[in-house]
Amino acid sequence: MQTPEETLERACGSCRDCGLAAGADPARASALPRASRRAISIQLKADVKPLDGPAGTDRDFTDLHAWAEALHPGAGWIGFDPTSGLLAGEGHLPLACTADPGNAAPVIGYTDVCETQFDVAMQVTRIHEDPRVTKPYTEAQWSAIQSLGAARRRRSRRRTTCA
What we know:
The chain is of the alpha+beta class.
C-alpha cells in the first residue's frame, strides 16, 4: 500500500492507492469526513457505443475493487472511483468501509511461517434485464407500447362516460 504522496509522485498505483490519493487532499482541504471502500465492482458491457469518451469494457465482469468516499452535507456519502474515472454507482457493491484503508484489507492478520494458497472466483450472470435508455426499443416494441397506451385510454374513456 502506497501513501497518497507516493501514488501522486509515481503517477500509478492500485485501485486502493488511487482511491486513497483521490480522497486525501480534497477531503482535508474541505474538512469533509472521508472513507475508503473495499468492494466488488460489477461492470457490464455497454448496449451501444458511446458518442464520446471511452467505450468501456467489452464483456460483463466483476472484480475486487476500492474507491474513496466523502460525506457531503445534504447529499450523504459520495463515492469517487479514480481508477474507472466514475462516480460510484449501481455497479459498486461495498463490502467494507473504514477511515483507515489498512483496516479493510481482504486478508489481514499474523501467522507463523506456513504455506497457504488463497483463491477467489466471481461470476456475473444477467438473470433479467429491463429495457434501458441506452438500449432503445425496436420499432415493433415501440408500436406495441403505443397500441397498449391507446387501448388503455379508450378503455378509461368508456368507464368515465356518464349516461
